[in-house]
Amino acid sequence: MPQPAPTVGIIANPASGRDLRRLTANAGLYSSTDKASAIQRLLAAFGATGVSQVLMPTDMTGIAAAVLKASHGPIAREQHWPALELLDLPLTQTVADTRLATRLMVERGVAMIAVLGGDGTHKAVAAHAGDVPLLTLSTGTNNAFPELREATSAGLAGGLFASGQVPNTISLRRNKRLLVNVARQNLCEWALVEVAVSPQRFVGARALSRSEDLSEVFACFAEPHAIGLSSLCGLWCPVSRHAAQGAWVRLNPGAEHALLAPLAPGLLQGCGITASGFLAPGVPHGLSLASGTLALDGEREIEFAEGDNPTITLDHQGPLTVDVEAVLAHAARHHLLAVPRGHRLHPANPC
Fold it and tell me: CA neighbours within 13 Å on the CB side: how many for 244?
C-alpha cells in the first residue's frame, strides 16, 4: 500500500541573525528576505520529493507573507510546490511564538520540522518537538548546532526522509545535550551545544562574548571550525558530534596559556586556559564558581548563588535531526533522484 504524502513544518525565527552582535562583532545580517528566499528553495525541493503539505506560522516581518505570495505564482506551479497552510497564531514576537508553533505542528502530526535559525531557535523548537525530527538550517549568529548548508540540498534530503524513501536508520541522528540541574531552585534545563559559566551575578544583557566574562565552558561537541563559545573547546580539546563524550575548559585571564578564539563572528579574543578535559555521559560535573550566571547556547538564562551547587551532565537524549549528508549519499548510491521519461522533470518532456 503506498504511503500517504507527508506534511512537514517550517519554522523561521524572524529575529535570528539580527541581535546585538551585529554591532559589537561585525556579524553578517540574515534578513527576512533571505529567509523567505531560503524557504522557497525548501518548498521547491519538498515538491520534487513528494511532500504534499507544509505548515508555517505567520510572523510580523513579512516572511510568511512573501512565501505565501510566491506560492501562488508561476514558479510554484511549475515546480509543484506543496500546499502551504499558514498557522495564524497570537504573536508575541518572543520565543513563545516558536514554542507554540512547534507544539501545534506536533499535534498536526508533521513528519519533520525544518528550522531556520541559530542555536537558540533550534533549542526552543527541540524542547517541544519530542521525537519529531528537525531539518536544521543556519540563519542565526551562533550556528554551531545547525550546520551551514544550502536550503535546496537540505530540502532534498528532508523531503526524501519525510516521504519514506530513505530509512530512519540512515536518515536520523540522535544528538547529545547538556542537562543543567539546580536542585535548590527546582530547575532543570538543557543546552544543545554548550553551557558557559560566568562570574557575572545577573543575567542582564544575555549574550556572552568577552573572555573576562567566562569561567568555564562545557560543550556537547566542539569542532575546530566552530564560531561562538564552543570554539574554546573546539580549538583546545576538540570532540566531534558523533563522539560519545563532550568537552570542557576552565578559563582565567592570568593563565600561562592563552587561546585565540572566535567568540562571535568577527570577534577574536585571547582566552586564558587553565584546565581542560572530556565529559563522560551520565556523570554530573560541579562548577568552579560558587555564584554567577549560566549561559545556555550563548544566552545567559540562569542565576545561581552560593549553596545552589549547579551540575552539568552530558547525555544522549537530545533531538533527532535529519543527517543531510547521509541521506543524499544513500540517494546517490540507490539513484533515488533518477526520474523516468514520463516524469514532469525529465528533459525529454516538453516544458
Answer: 4
CA distance 292 to 203: 9
Helix (H, G, I), strand (E, B) or coil at 330: helix
CA neighbor of 263 nearest in space, from 228, 221, 299: 228
What is the greatest pairwise CA distance in the chain? Answer: 74
User: Is the pTM value of this prediction over 0.70?
Assistant: yes
pLDDT in tens, the chain (351 residues): 456 779 999 999 998 755 544 445 555 567 899 999 999 999 999 999 999 999 999 999 999 999 999 999 999 999 999 999 999 899 999 999 999 999 999 999 999 999 999 998 999 999 999 999 999 999 876 688 998 899 999 999 999 999 999 999 999 999 999 999 999 999 999 999 999 999 988 886 667 778 888 999 999 999 999 989 999 999 999 999 999 999 999 999 989 889 999 998 888 999 999 999 999 999 999 999 999 999 999 888 899 999 999 999 999 999 999 999 999 999 999 999 998 887 777 787 765
Map residue 129 onto helix, strand or coil: helix
